[in-house]
Structures are given as structure tokens and as C-alpha cells.
Amino acid sequence: MAPLDIPRLAAGDRVQHELLVRERDDKVTKGGDPFVVLKLGNSSGVLGVNIWKEHVPQIEGVRPGQVVQVIGTIELYKGAKQLKVTVPPRVVAQGAANADEFLPRISVSVDELWARVDAWRAEMKGPLRRAIDLFFADDSFRERFARAPGATRGHHALIGGLLLHSCEVANIARESVRTMRGNVALVTAGALLHDIGKVESYAIQLSGFENTQAGHLMGHIVLGSLMFEERVRSLPAGTLGESQRLELHHFIQSHHGILEYGAAVRPMTLEAEILHFADQSSAKGNDFSEAVQDAELFPTDDLEFSAKRSWRLERRVWKRTHSWE
To answer: Rounded CA gap, 72 and 59, in Å?
Structure first.
């Protein structure tokens, strides 16, 4: 059976598929009756399901991170799509379940993103190219980097999100540094290195994107510098000067901008400052792009302003009703 394409579902469509339980919320009606709201999804999107009191005991063991078989039809409630099940969701064996089928992923071609990265690498010369190739000429690292999310929740929390975010940051930084007459190759290297620690910091599981033990205890900035230092030691002595090595560490350590946001130090060069704002631009731009497509913020198509504040943006969002074309 072909995977369910959730965004294309319309009222009346029948669903008989396996979906991942993303969230479970146990609630009580005004009359005191228990009911459960489930969020079920796959790599294409998420559907809401209400399980009413007569069936609540039958889903007692249903928890986030489990794959369930669902049978029902799509209906509209206050303009929003939801799944009306004809039988309660049934937990299925997870031994063969592939997280890639159920977790959200980037829609951009990974091959196209790598082609862009490799074109940027080709522009680099000497020790800078040697340093970048420690990671980005390593097929094993590339495979992990291309699957990793950009966050466990929030911006670019998608399979492939880290690669997409890093390319966005590099694009923004390269254009900005040209305007300010800085070093394009250097800021590109900083953009590619700044989040390498997320490869070690985040894990992909059926339950979603989670922090690894190292991610919890040290965070991606510290892990990134440790990874960089370990690989730099494999270079022949004298390949990188001491100040060159420290400048590349500085991109990793300062890209969050200020200490309150996790930076070890504030950016101290033009390129490091531009990298910080490029990182912010990619993250916040992604937050806005996803907010206007969020069914919780815009439960019906006729809303101009989001029904509530976005937790990622800490404000309500406007979805313009006019066109500039």
C-alpha cells in the first residue's frame, strides 16, 4: 500500500494505514466524561483523532512513539481536517518500522544540497579546504549529517533538517559577507562547521527527535568543538596555524551570539558576526514558513491571523490575504 499523503486528504476520503502516534492528550469533557486526543502522522504530515469515552479503555496502551493501524474517514470540524475512526487505533509490531517513513523530512532534494556544498568546497583553498574536508569529504559523516534534524523541536526539526539549515545559513552568510567585503570562503566554512555537533547531539527514533546522552550533558556547541579538535589532530603538523585553528573553533563557539543563548563567547570578527545573524535568519525564517502552514495556528483556511500565539515565535502570525504577483 502506498504511504498516506496527509496534505492531499479531503473530506470523505477513507484511511486505512499505519501511522505514528506523535502525541496523546487525555482530557475530560465538561460533563466529566474522559476522552483522548491523538495526533497521528507520517513523513507527510499529522492528523488529529478524538477517541470518545466508550473506546478510551481500548487504547489504554497507546502511547507516543508507537505505530498504530487506523481505519476511518476524513471529516471537517470547524473547517479543519480530522480523522473519524470507525474502530479504535490498534498498536502494531514495531520491529520492522522505519523512522524515516513516519517522521517529517525536508522536501528539498538532498543531492541538490550536497551539490551546493561541494561547489562551495571547491572554492576553498589550502588549509581551509583541508579543514572542511575532514568532515565533508568523509562519506560516513555526510550520511549522518544528511539525516540529522536541525533541532529536536522547533526550527528544521526534520530528517535532513541539519543539512538544509546549514545550506540556508551559508547562502545568507555568503551574500551578507560579500556586501560587507568580508571573506566569502571563510564564512562558508563557518556555516558548514557551526552545527556539526548536532550529529552527536541528536538521535532519530520512532518517538521523534531526542537528545543523546552527550547532547543532554554537553550540548551541540561543545560537542562540535570536540569533534573538530579530534579531526584536526589527524592533519599533518603545520597544516593549520594555531590562530587559524582557533578561528574555526570560534565560529562554533560564538554562533549563538550571546552567552544567554548558549554562546561561549560573543562573535569577535565580521565573519563570525555575520554567521550568527545568518543562523538566526534561517531559524526564524523557518519558524515563520512553518507557522502559516500549522493547522493548530490556522485551523481553518479563512483565518488571517493565527488563532493563538506561536510558541516558537512568541507572537501571533499574520497570513496575508493579498498577492503581490
So the answer is: 16
Intervals of CATH 2.40.50.140 along the chain: 6-99
Shortest CA distance to 4 belongs to which of 42, 39, 49, 38? 42
CA distance 40 to 22: 6
In sequence order, what are the beta bridge partners of 134?
none
Q: Please give the DSSP secondary-structure letter assigned to residue 30.
A: T
Q: Which of 17-21, 92-96, 120-124, 208-212 has the lowest mean pLDDT?
A: 92-96
Strand partners for 73: 14, 84
Q: Specify which residues 69 forms β-bridges with.
A: 18, 90
Question: Are 36 and 51 spatial neighbours (Cβ–Cβ below 8 Å)?
Answer: yes
Q: Residue 28 phi/psi, 5° resolution?
A: -135, 135
The cell for 148 is 540529522
Give Cα 95 to chain centroid, integer Å: 25
CA angle in degrees (0–180, nearest 5) for 176-181-184: 65
What is the CATH T-level fold of the domain 103-288, as seen in this structure?
Hypothetical protein af1432 (1.10.3210)
pTM of the model: 0.86
Q: Which three cell numbers stand for residue 263?
A: 554562546
- Residue 97 vs residues 12, 30, 199: alpha-carbon distances, Å: 28, 38, 22
Query: CA distances (Å), 183 to each of 189, 243, 273, in order?
Result: 10, 16, 12
- Say what the pLDDT of residue 295 is: 82
Pick the CATH number of 6-99 from 3.30.1330.50, 3.20.20.370, 3.40.50.1360, 2.40.50.140: 2.40.50.140
Phi-psi label, residue 12: left if phi above 0, alpha if psi -120 to 50, beta otherwise: left
Q: Which of 236, 220, 238 is CA-nearest to residue 228?
A: 220
All CATH 1.10.3210 domain ranges in the chain, comma separated = 103-288
Q: DSSP letter at 5?
A: -
Looking up cell 499574520, which residue turns up? 318
* 88-114 mean pLDDT: 86
Q: Who's near 269: CB < 8 A, 6+ residues apart? A: 247, 250
